[in-house]
Amino acid sequence: MKPMAYDRHKYSGELYKFVREAIGDTSELKYYYVGNISVTAGLSLTGKMTIKTEEPVTTGSLIKNIRDADGNLILDDQTWQVAASEPVLNAFNTIESYRLRVYKFQGEI
Fold first, then answer.
1. Domain residue limits, the chain
2. DSSP symbols for 12-39
């Protein structure tokens, strides 16, 4: 049993993963839509955006269109890139969730 089984995520967002395509001598990152992801968004002690989720997300992935339960955008039309992902352990040393450190994405999807 998970000790935090009652914990709910307040928001949902669109998850985009990337693939690197080699074209001759250059390579290009292409992002593709994976699906919706349940998240809890907040700020760290230093004022940076952090996101908590149930599933692991790879570094470099994008989270876009974070919405509340009514479907309203909470942060306008902003895209966030995952800079770091770390597991959150409970008292029994099992992974309860994942904490993501994210930054605003500058680029095109």
1. 11-104
2. EEEEEEEEEEEETTEEEEEEEEEEEEEE
Please tell me the distance from the alpha carbon of residue 65 to that of residue 91, in angstroms, as a whole number: 33
Ramachandran class of 35: left when φ > 0, alpha when ψ lies in -120 to 50, beta otherwise: left
- Token digits for 23? 């074209």
Tokens of 91: 């008292």
The three-state secondary structure class of 53 is: strand
Convert the pLDDT of each residue in 31-44 to its tens digit: 999 999 999 888 88
Amino acid identity at 53? T
- Give per-residue pLDDT as tens, 15-24: 999 999 988 8
Token code pair at residue 71? 């479907």
Q: Does pTM surpass 0.90?
A: no
CATH number of the domain located at residue range(s) 11-104 in this protein: 2.40.10
